Structure formats: structure tokens, C-alpha cells
Amino acid sequence: MPKPDQRQDEENLVPVSALQHYLFCPRQCALIHIEQQWAENGATVEGRLLHERVDSGVPDRKRGVRTLRTLPIRSFALGIYGKADAVELHGTGSTLIPYPVEYKRGSPKPHHADEVQLCAQALCLEEMFGCAVSEGALFYDRPHRRTTVQFDQDLRDLTQKTAQKVQDMLAAGKTPQPVWNKGCKHCSLEAICQPRRLEKPLCVEKWFLENLED
Hints:
exonuclease, alpha/beta, antiviral defense, hydrolase, Cas4_exonuclease, single chain, EC 3.1.12.1
């Protein structure tokens, strides 16, 4: 049974997925994790169906590698928790090394949100298994192949900094103002966020003066 202080730590953990949301857009992250807003579009439906096919939760063994699916993970050091799509266990006996594999819709992206999400899983596994995890893989359904990700110090630092920024934002409970960019059209929350309309909020004083003059 968890100790009281550990139970409190668990209550303060933030989802690993929030790091990916934050790097894509801090406002999207806040809408999802502070305001509990969500909406589907074609991309999110495709992603959900992809994960439903992958996340059977049934371990399997191929070519001497055991694969754990939908594995619960957490790191008290980073203050994060979640589930890994797949964790391959390489090696034998006491030398088993976890190898996280995250499944993604589409193709590799120019930003590092997916890599940070995968690195966060690796840091969780390092804490849970007590061993170094040097690499993992992102499997994109469009090229239908793996992209190997090395967990170097730069990626680890970015992951840790992002985790801290997410924790600070969620603790403050404040949703950032929208900033419209071309990526907004691909976001399922665009209609809720309304970035074009709310990027420059209407000045209340100016509105009153204009209407008083009329």
C-alpha cells in the first residue's frame, strides 16, 4: 500500500501526453488538461484507431524479445505518469533493458514533441527498472516504419524543462492567450480555441466609446 507522502506525490503527477501537447501548443495543453476540453477531427480519430489496434494490452514475444503493451509508467523525479504503447524487453535474465516504442499517426514532424514524449517514457522506465535506457523508437503509420530516437543529453534536458513548464502551468491553472499560426488548422480544438478571433482581444473601453458615440 502506498505511503501517505507517495500517495500525495502520485496525485501531483501530470500526464506524459501533456508534454507532447505543450510543445505543439501551450494553449492546447491548457485547454485539454486545465479546462478539460476535447474535440475530435479526422486526424485524432485516425490516431485513436491506430492506438486501439496497437494497445491490446497483451504481452507477446517475437525473436526473443518480449513486448509489454499499454504499460503503466511513472516518474516521481519528473512528476509525470502515463502508459507506454509498447515496451520491448531486450536481453536476458537480470540484464533486461526496456526499449519504448510509441505509435504515431502520420509521418515524422519538424518539431520535437513526439521525441520528448518518447524520452519522457524512457526516463520513467529508467526510474522504474533502475537501468539506463539509451534509445527507443517512434513508429509512424505513413512511412510504416520505425524512426530510432537516441536519448542524448539535449533531448533529456528538453524533456525535463518541458515537464517543469507543464507542471508550473497546470499548478497556476491559467490558460495562455491564443497565438494563431498555420498549425492551428490541424488542431482539433481550433473551434474551441478560436485563435484568429481571440489572438487580439477586443478592448472593452474602446468598444464602450464606439457604442456611446453611436
